[in-house]
Amino acid sequence: MKKLLNEFLKGIIKENPTFILALGLCPTLAVSTSVTNAIGMGIAATFVLLGSNVIISLIKNFIPDRIRIPCFIVVIATFVTIAELVMKAYSPALNRALGIYVPLIVVNCIVLGRAEAYAQKNTLANSLFDALGMGVGFTLALILISAIRESLGAGQILGQALLKGFEPVFVFVLPTGALLVIGLLLGFFNLLKERKT
Amino acid sequence: MPPKNDNRLIVSISPHLHKGETTSNIMWMVVISLIPAGAAGVLLFGMSALSVIILGVLSALVTEAAIQILTKKRVSISDGSALITGLLLAYNLPPEAPFWLPIIGSVFSIAIGKMVFGGLGQNIFNPALVGRVFLMASWPKYMTTFAGPFDAATQATPLAAMKEGKALEAISYLDLFLGKKGGCIGEVCILALLIGALFLLARGYISWHIPVPYVFSVGLFTYIFGQKGLFSGDWLFHILTGGLILGAFFMATDYVTSPLTRKGQVIFGVGCGIITVVIRLWGGYPEGTSYAILMMNAATPLIDRFTKNRVYGLK
Fold first, then answer.
1. What torsion do the CA atoms of B180, B181, B186, B191 make, to the nearest 10 degrees?
2. A172: nearest CA in chain B?
3. Are B56 and B48 in contact, with CB atoms under 8 Å apart?
4. What is the pLDDT of residues B195-235, one digit of tens each?
5. Chain B: residue nearest A181 by CA?
6. Confidence (pTM)
7. Counting Cβ atoms within 10 Å, is residue B89 exposed (0-12), middle (13-18) or buried (19+)?
């Protein structure tokens, strides 16, 4: 049980997909303009990660090694389609805000990366907790980045205005701001890692 | 230093002759050369311009010192480089800017434009321009509201008026040259800028290889692509307005972010000129000097690579 817990926890800090592994930066840059978008994206990606890791870990013995990537993609695309249709049905506004980045979860390198590096070599339970940890880690990273960008760039969080008379730093809503925030946070986490060792 | 009367033979690598010039020495000379332009700005726009300059400079110095203390590095604010950054940033702000604009701009210039790269000599972009572009993207409203000289009535810069297609108020070339026009604090008085620039050129702190091709190409291209057809442009107007002179002589010539070789510097200057003209004539912004210099800053490593001096004796 402790091992499973470790599999879960490693994705949140020690192997955080965004800040330590630097995977999936494209959706991170694109959808982190607001916390709402970040949570939606995080949940969708976690769902896909969970589904694909479980299925791939179950069928790993049947997949021929040479065509494993297309097989993974088919599994992942299935779950992305489910996520997209559910999002369209129950939260069309979020779907519009995330736009092309929902279908693009198919090629999100966190999902494929975990399938290739973890699920095809590990047991079902381990893969499940790995996917959960990675998904939560990705979601938390997105929320952290988007909270900084939304509060500075639009003066609000989750649509709630923060301070009266605050002149929003518009640049943080622009792509420039995304690169700045992610770059500084990456540097900060590298600093923490260095301090530890 | 070896003790006196030491007759040992000391072997060291070149260069052996040293002019006695130091980085901070040069930086302070640049500061001196910038004084006339700032004085002219204060004279034209009043005390609000002075407070913008002081706030910009002070916050640049404080930021650099704070970061160097936090990262346990030697505090080097006395070398004048942070002072120049703060000064140039303030010169790039409108005189009526709210008090927090120069402060945030200077903090960003020093922290993001310079210190994250490792401090003086490591930055790839001109820190003052990084700060200016950051402010421009964040608060365009405050960055493009200009008070006219001598009275506080808001007035469009000549370039902004041209961009909006308004008929230009009759401003004589002499007024443009002396600075009787709306604009940023340090960019309006061409006369004062040229005094400082001539001082730097005469003392050899900057060479003509960047600013002259820059200004010349802006003049040439605006003459060719005039509004009334080819070869009819008002080239003198384009040279005397906007931040061109300030940018060409004081910002494009930054040692750290411009090419090392003479040939490279000419390419750099012409590149800046072309981008400036493209932005001014066909771009979305009225003025393109800062973006032009930043873009060419990004191209500097490439230019350096392709204009590397041939080593004598090698093929």
1. -40
2. B138
3. no
4. 999 999 999 899 999 999 999 999 999 999 887 778 888 88
5. B112
6. 0.87
7. buried
